[in-house]
Design brief:
Blueprint lengths: L3 E6 L2 E8 L7 E2 L4 H5 L19 E4 L4 E4 L2 E2 H7 L2 H10 L5 H12 L9 H5 L7 H11 L13 H27 L12 H10 L10 H13 L7 H11 L4 H12 L7 H12 L5 H9 L20 H17 L4 H14 L2 H5 L6 H12 L6 H21 L29
Antiparallel strand pairs: 1-2, 2-3, 4-5, 5-6
Helix pairs in contact: 2-9, 3-18, 6-7, 6-11, 7-8, 7-18, 8-9, 9-14, 9-17, 9-18, 10-11, 10-18, 11-18, 12-15, 12-17, 14-17
Bound molecules: s-citryldethia Coenzyme A.
């Protein structure tokens, strides 16, 4: 391992320090590059840039490894539950029984929304996309919870974090209820975090809602699979918003807005719509040809990843969960058959092999969510619900970093050089 690299730039020989983490690629410390050379680095899309140091999540894209505080995602999905994973991501360790009971109790006591927030929903059309509602309502939380908006106070930061984790299921369920014209359901704190979400979503005042344990476990596992993922676009958005000192509710609303994009969290909705459009296995070759056609903007949604150049380990668990849930519910969905066949055909096609394009977390998730009863428009809202713990954990890590400063990238300017103003009368 080297401790520095040499660079000759602007006629100067520089020794740039190399920093090493606990695992993964070393980084070249270029913080003084501009001061020493008057030059910037250039990395649109940040394909080769580490924006921060973090101890929360580690991804080895070549090996298809995903660790949360060192624990492999497959083990967490199989043996843990979402409340435990929330504690792990936020506090760094799996909770003891007492810690878990206290954490779950704390979260359950923040599940209600201020009653006036319910009126926000009435301002939306019934057919508003749930992510539009999530952006609006989560941002509006900052108008109601000023007592936990002082980011310099660790206790207020943790209260805001607990509030966001606890209220996202309520906000998401209310968005769904509003879209179908059913009354909002109050949280029930005697249920698990995930069971409570299911009852707020699918329960009705007219009868007692019975949580299906198979669905509860599958939903809880889906939340675990979406909880955090290093410095992805929406997490980087939350960090950048937080670096200015914005309150946590506004930062998470910014993350929700970024996640909505079809290249990111919006891919789960787009992937199921794509599978339904393909419809039958015999039409798959036509769509694979389109995905390979440089002149066609179509891409296989749920395929490819900036970091994973191997199978996304979350997709592996997701596919197994589809089989379990469809089997337990006695549901057959031809779309699942199309997904399996599409994966097989794509992964044997030189184009996908050479470009190392594999299914990602979004490829199979829609099949399960649809089987449980969610409309495709709710899929990304569910991703946002689960990712909130990752966002707040990363935000806390950044804010508590004594070296933290506002994020302010530079650019390669390609516009006009200085010129004088031309009066209107002289313009042709
Ligand atoms: C998520 O970052 C994260 O961690 C995100 C996430 C998380 O948990 O936070 O994992 C969640 O966002 C998963 C990704 C969901 N998005 C999709 O499934 C949308 C479809 N996938 C792509 O748009 C794409 O793969 C991205 C956006 C995911 C990654 O894009 P990159 O890294 O910028 O790669 P690229 O666009 O430069 O693609 C490399 C090549 C290109 O061909 P060439 O220009 O080199 O010839 O692969 C091709 C692309 O055209 N390609 C695809 C493809 N994805 C990439 N071709 C067909 N179908 C695809 N899906």
């Amino acid at each position: 391992m080297t401790d520095s690299v040499k660079l000759n730039a602007a006629g100067k020989d520089l020794d740039l320090k190399v920093l090493s983490g606990s695992v993964g690629p070393d980084v070249i410390d270029i913080r003084k590059l501009y001061a020493q050379t008057g030059m910037f680095t250039y990395d649109p899309g940040f394909t080769s840039t580490a924006s921060c140091d973090s101890a929360i999540t580690y991804i080895d894209g070549d090996e298809g490894v995903l660790l949360h505080r060192g624990y492999p995602i497959g083990q967490l999905a199989e043996k843990s539950n979402f409340m435990e994973v929330c504690h792990l991501l936020l506090n760094g360790e799996l909770p003891t029984k007492d810690e878990l009971d206290k954490f779950s109790y704390t979260i359950s006591r923040h599940t209600m929304l201020h009653e006036q927030l319910a009126t926000f929903y009435r301002g939306f059309r019934r057919d508003a996309h749930p992510m539009a509602i999530m952006c609006g309502v989560v941002g509006a939380l900052s108008a109601f919870y000023q007592d936990s908006a002082d980011i310099t106070d660790p206790q207020q930061r943790m209260i805001a974090s607990h509030r966001l984790i606890a209220k996202m299921p309520t906000i998401a369920a209310m968005a769904y209820k509003y879209s179908i014209g059913q009354p909002f359901m109050s949280p029930k704190n005697n249920l698990s975090y995930t069971g409570n979400f299911l009852q707020m979503t699918f329960g009705v005042p007219a009868e007692e809602y019975v949580v299906n344990p198979v669905v509860e476990k599958a939903m809880d596992r889906i939340f675990i699979l979406h909880a955090d993922h290093e410095q992805n676009a929406s997490t980087s958005t939350v960090r950048l918003a937080g670096s200015s000192g914005a309150n946590p509710f506004a930062c998470i609303a910014a993350g929700i807005a970024c996640l909505w994009g079809p290249a990111h969290g919006g891919a789960n909705e787009a992937a199921l719509n794509m599978l339904r459009e393909i419809g039958t296995v015999d039409r798959i070759p036509e769509y694979i040809a389109r995905a390979k056609d440089k002149n066609d903007p179509f891409r296989l949604m749920g395929f490819g990843h900036r970091v994973y150049k191997n199978y996304d380990p979350r997709a592996t668990v997701m596919q197994q969960t589809v089989r379990e849930v469809l089997g337990e519910l006695g549901v057959t969905d031809p779309v699942f058959d199309v997904a399996i066949a599409l994966e097989e055909m794509a992964l044997s096609d030189p184009y996908f092999i050479e470009k190392k394009l594999f299914p990602n977390v979004d490829f199979y998730s829609g099949v399960i969510l649809s089987a449980i009863g969610f409309p495709t428009t709710m899929f990304t809202a569910l991703f946002a619900l689960a990712r909130t713990v990752g966002w707040v954990a990363q935000w806390n890590e950044m804010i508590s970093d004594p070296e933290q400063k506002i994020g302010r990238p530079r650019q390669l300017y390609t516009g006009p050089t200085q010129r004088d103003f031309v009066p209107l009368a002289d313009r042709t």
